[in-house]
Amino acid sequence: SAAAPLPEEDCMKLNPSFLGIALSSLLAIDLWASKRLGVCAGEGSAWGSARPLMKVIEVSGHGIPWLLGTFYGLCQSDSSAAREVLLNLLFALLLDLVLVAVVKGIVKRRRPTHNKMDMFVTISVDKYSFPSGHATRAALVCRFVLHHLVLAVPLRVLVVLWALIVGVSRVMLGRHNVTDVLFGLLLGYALYSVVEYCWLSPLSAPALFALW
């Protein structure tokens, strides 16, 4: 007698699509590379002695210092041009926090298994890994600073290096997988374009500037 046809989902497992194979392979490579590069994930890791330095870099890309620093500068500034730039930086940082939290809540990718949950000030969605909020913020702030502050070439290079180091440190600490950081950097770079499009000025948002 003829064999009963296999259920559709079993057929898909036996004959996976090229896209499915490619995605599974990329995921496996991502997990393998992330674990190999997590050289500061613990004190006993290959570069465990560099972990304190990596954690300082982690704090430098955290949202709370940036939000508090920007808000303080906004309150202390007596220049209308500086207030406009700082207000838009504050808007960019808040938009970044909301967008990253939403994406993390939708994707719900767990952090690498070799990560130690000793991160600086976390909230509920921080148990998820994709995308890296630090990487997103670093790319956003980097592009913002380069466009709105007049800096000498060495300082501009340092800003770019800082953003890249923040991204790399996330993998080295074991906080994120490589794809989390790469997507975060791309997202932060693109998010700046949204901020520029929605730029807040005394003409477009007079009520906000009246507060200051």
In short:
The chain crosses the membrane at residues 86-107, 144-169, 181-200. The chain is an all-alpha fold and 212 residues long.
Global mean pLDDT: 87
Beta content comes to under 5%
User: Over the alpha carbons, how many angstroms does the gyration radius reach?
Assistant: 21 Å
Number of helices: 9
- Total beta-strand segments: 0
Task: Give the assembly state of these chains.
Answer: single chain
The end-to-end span amounts to: 83 Å
- SSE string: HHHHHHHHH
The share of residues in helices is 55-70%
Tell me, what's the shape?
globular
- Structural class, by secondary structure, is mainly alpha
Unreliable residue runs: 6-12
- Largest sheet, described in full? none
Description:
The chain has 212 residues and is mostly helical. It has a domain at 117-211. The protein is built from nine helices and no strands. Helix 6 (133-148) runs parallel beside helix 8 (178-197). The radius of gyration is 21 Å and the shape is globular. The relative contact order is 0.15. The model is unreliable at 6-12 (pLDDT under 50). It is found in: Endoplasmic reticulum membrane; Nucleus inner membrane. One of its GO terms (biological process) is lipid metabolic process.
